[in-house]
Amino acid sequence: MTRTLARFAAELQYADLPAAAIEKAREITLHGWGVQLAGSTLPWSGSIYRYVQGQGGRPESTVLNYGLRTSAGHAAFANGTFGHGFEMDDNHAETGLKGGCVMIPTVLAMGERQRSTGRECLLATVIGFEIATRIARSVVSLGNRKSHHPTGIAGPFGAAAAAGKLLQFGEEAMLHALSIAAGHSAGLNEAPATGRGSLKRIFGGMAAANGIRSALLAEEGLTGPETMLEGKKGFCRTFSDEPDLSALTAGLGSEWQILKVHYKLYAQDGYIQPMTEALDRLVKRHRFSPAEVAKIRAGVSRHACEVAGQIREPADLTSAQFSANFSLALFLVKGGAGFQEYTAESLTDPAISDLSRRIDIEVDEAIEAEWQRTKPRGARVTVQLRSGERFAETVPSLRPLTTAEVEEKFRRLATVAISEKKAEQLLERVGQLEAEQDLSRVVSLLTA
Questions:
Q1: Cα separations (Å) of 148 from 28, 145, 154, 310, 331?
Q2: How confident is the model at residue 212 (pLDDT cuts 50, 70, 90)?
Q3: In 8-93, beta strands by DSSP E
Q4: Same domain, 332 and 217
Q5: Residue 228 sits in the same domain as residue 366
Q6: What CATH number has the domain bearing residue 191?
Q7: What is the tally of structural domains in the chain?
């Protein structure tokens, strides 16, 4: 099965892609660049930049916003960290893998290094998503409670495949790149579960850099087992007690995983998103203020409770973005839950703290039953006012963003770091990315 995936990645051509997959790759590229540009301005991103700056490296790829040219691996590490740095990235609902913070930095770094065409980059993006999500699907299931982070463990495979494609690997080189990538799988959910520290922020950058390293090592002749995925002591059986090996190849070439990717509306964990959207609908419909609220109950699946209902009193921004009660209070008090609302000042805002203590996150049996069937991220939010009035709203699953909403999100995030003029130019260039003859010509628009 490892070889089957390697052959698929090596042989797939741009002409083989359906129009929907190409369009989605363009959209994810735009979205990813916006998220990375905004994320580059965060405190922990500054730490990553200073680290990368101190490492030197051949000037072949660019760090977004800063303009530093360094090795492809270092640039992808920085940009991937920027992309995963504030819970604004994309998501593959079935696995929880955040592919944009892995594949987009990888393709940008290697595309600039290799002076790849837009078509080559779009093809590499689709391949990276396809490989990473299929491998994640093989080990991530409803009954799987192992504490690995999907982006950290499966991301290196996608990055290796994308980098290998831009290096024009044949089947054998691609096979070894994927096998080597397995040795780079890392990422533990203790980081988001506790909400403490900024370690989780680098999981996307780690995966991108590790995938590039895997491809470059394969190019130099390093080899790995050709059964690295399916072997008795290989990846799948290491990361799952009951792996689904059929997920690796079923529908390969006809079912495109990139089409199952969606984007976050808010800068918070994905399981909080439907709660916030339900609350937003209630506020718009009934026009109540935070002071009028006596109590809020968010009914979700048991898994959502475990992920987002445990941190009641967040100590930093990471824990705030994984605290459902804090996030709902933040949204109600600030009128939003995005890049501009999750701040250090919000952590100590007494109005948010007071309201958050009146919000409970509980298991809703109807939502739980649906989760057991198809794993949608749904929520039912009930608001009780001090007047005695009660309102309820159910969001059965995360809704997809429209093209206009993705473009507006890009503008809002990109202009945190670059000018409105550059943001509009990027929008235009990404819309015609398949016509780009050299990706390096786009890079100047991604720096301040």
A1: 24, 9, 10, 18, 30
A2: very high
A3: 61-62, 69-70, 90-92
A4: no
A5: no
A6: 1.10.4100.10
A7: 2
Q: Which domain holds residue 338?
A: 273-395
Handedness of CA 413, 416, 422, 424 (dihedral sign): positive
Mean pLDDT of 228-251: 94
**What's the chain's average pLDDT?**
94
Q: Are residues 42 and 177 in the same domain?
A: yes
Kindly give the pairing relationship between strand 293-300 and strand 379-385: antiparallel
Give the pLDDT confidence of 300-316 residue by residue, as tens digits: 999 999 989 999 999 88
Task: Identify the band that residue 141 occupies on the pLDDT scale cut at 50, 70 and 90.
Answer: low
Instruction: Report d(CA 215, CA 178) in Å as an integer.
Output: 8
Rounded alpha-carbon distances, angstroms, from residue 375 to 246, 263, 269, 372 = 19, 17, 16, 6
Q: Which pLDDT does position 146 carry in this prediction?
A: 66
- What pLDDT score does 376 carry? 87
d(C-alpha 139, C-alpha 28), whole Å: 24
> Token pair of 1, please?
């099965």
CATH code, domain carrying 297 = 3.30.1330.120
Longest dimension (CA), the chain: 72
State whether 215 and 282 are in the same domain: no
Based on the domain organization, do 139 and 231 belong to the same domain? yes
Written as one letter, the residue type at 131 is I
* Nearest to 96, CA basis, from 189, 30, 178: 189
**Structure confidence at residue 143 as a pLDDT band (50, 70, 90):** very low
Would you give the DSSP letter of residue 402?
A: P
**Is the domain of 117 the same as that of 220?**
yes
How far is Cα 319 from Cα 195, in angstroms, rounded to an integer?
4
Task: Judge whether 132 and 155 are in contact, CB under 8 Å.
Answer: yes
End-of-domain residue from the set 354, 377, 395: 395
Per-residue tokens: 5: 């995936």
Residues 13 and 37 in one domain: yes
Give one DSSP letter per residue of 106-120, joined into a string.
HHHHHHHHHT--HHH
**β pairing state of 61-62 and 69-70:** antiparallel
pLDDT of residue 149: 86
On whether both 235 and 293 belong to a single domain, the answer is no
